[in-house]
Amino acid sequence: MKALQVKQTNTFKKSALLLAITTAISMPVIAVEESKKNTAEEAKIERMTITATRSALNLDDALTSQVVITRADIDVINPISIQDLLSTLPSVDISNNGGRGQTSSVFLRGNGSDATLILVDGVRVSSATLGSTRLNNISPEMIERIEVVQGPRAALWGADAIGGVIQIFTRQLEGGEHFAGVSIGTDEYRKYKAGIGLKHGDGQTTVTVSHERSEGFDVQDDGELDEDGYKFTSIAVRGQQNISEDLSIDWLFSNSEGENEFDGSYQNNSDLTGHAWLVRANYVSEFSNIKNNTVLSIGQNRDSSEGFLDLQSRGVFETRRDQFSFVNNSQLSNEFQVNMGVDFYQDDVSNSRILSFSGDVQRYADEKRDVTGAFVNALYNGDVLSFEATIRHDNVSGVDSENTYNLGAGYQINKDSRVVINHATGFKVPTFNDLYYPNFGTPTLNSERSETTELFFETRLGAVDTRINFYYSEIDELISRNPAGDAANFDEVIIKGAELSFNLVSTGGTHDLNLSYTDAKDQVTAEELAAVPTERDEKLIRRAREKLNYKFTTSINVADLYAEYKFVGSREDSVYPNDRVELGAYQLINLGLNAPLSKNLVLNARVTNLLDKEYQTANTYFTQGRALYIGVTYQNF
Description:
This protein is mainly β and about 625 residues long. It is about 10% helix and about 55% strand. It has a 22-stranded antiparallel beta barrel. A 5-stranded mixed sheet has the order 3-8-9-6-7. The longest helix is centred in the N-terminal third of the chain and has 16 residues, at about 10-25. The chain is globular, with a radius of gyration of 24 Å. The relative contact order is 0.14.
């Protein structure tokens, strides 16, 4: 295959990198005076979550399924992309139109890639035109932690949180802390990164920058053998300042620019830009022995993608989203708290322009919409019983209004075991493409609506933390395309799933194992099948039923080693105009290494697809073969 021809050009470089990694693992490692930060206080901070209830809460008290990926996890995995982190979680499918730098989709618990809300420090960053979120322009070096809530959280966050919520928190360094590093790898990969923490009075600001580029590989099976490269440059400024004992302000500014190459007759490369800012005030008060924490934030996100064909522009998709939110947390007692808030954001796509095949410039029939939501959440956490209830109302101009709710209950069986059940509704607003794309949009579309029930049990058996989840979702008014290509609402989708997770910390290292089963089917009626033959199959595309992830981390002579095994079952994908193809199951092994070379210098290395497996996550698109990355980082923390 031509993919193998491209791989063979990098054989010498891969061998050299593999030799360097092998040498680094076997060489004596210089002892360092200070190991990684792992104090009890930091461990407690890492166990806190914000995304579950929109206020600080101990992870063990949240009545929802949630995973937190910490900075320590990121350091040991040495990911090349956020997808490398998310793909290790249960019931998460990643689909790539090629490799790093290309379009990717994240399917959470069988839901569509645009049915999971993605936030960066509380800012919505999805495209209002395409509905997707570009994760490639967020470098792992710029991330402090990622909170992933699995299951509907629309009653708290509003639209698009059907599959769940993924919130990315940007890096925070203490004043005087800094790092700088460089990495090289397969396909002429280069990365340069740096960050610094600045102290200013009773506050600090962190500045991180990252630049990466690669010549890439041939990403599509289209008879044309070429390399499809990419480059991204990003900067993030994250800061906080205490104004008084009760008032603090924090802020975010991020900017990213990049471009990627791909194969296509209409477009073959694109320029990608992203911009976000946020200013947030936090005020702590107490009235009649009721402690309150009030958060007021205002921000903006801009997302732009301009496609080209041989340097000629083929149109621009741009979203400008102005955002505002007010959230108040009242701690009525040690066990009982109430959260309430108001959210508003305006989507503006007036800078978008669509070029028809004839070259005519077209625009959306409607270019702006307002979304306003208000919610109340009550949470009781007792020694044995816990309860949660949330209700929310959203008004989406030009579409409809939605009422959503969430009910949850937990029972603490003993100090190591609890069982939780929750039931929630959610909705996803049609994108501007769904509603107004010239000749293919349908302005009368309704929002997708979901209803989900989840039951999970968690316990500690000896030294093993164990968790088992069962969930059942019904999605009505699914937005898809009919044979003519027009957006349309279809009937019911049913998603059933189960997850089993184990965590063992032993003297030899840490073992993490999760298995998941996801059955996502479109409930096609006989009448629909007659009207739309073979266009709508039972299985939703690009979602595997069976997945298994195993991760092992250990330290040898103060070097951190990481090994990952991944199994993904077979999936189906669509073939234009109305056929299906099966994508085979695949297995991957990835390795990671962090080895201190001195007190401040660290060697970083990663091997992905160690066995050089050929597989596909999207029909007609190749994936990267064995890839090796090695770098050094200077840091003073």
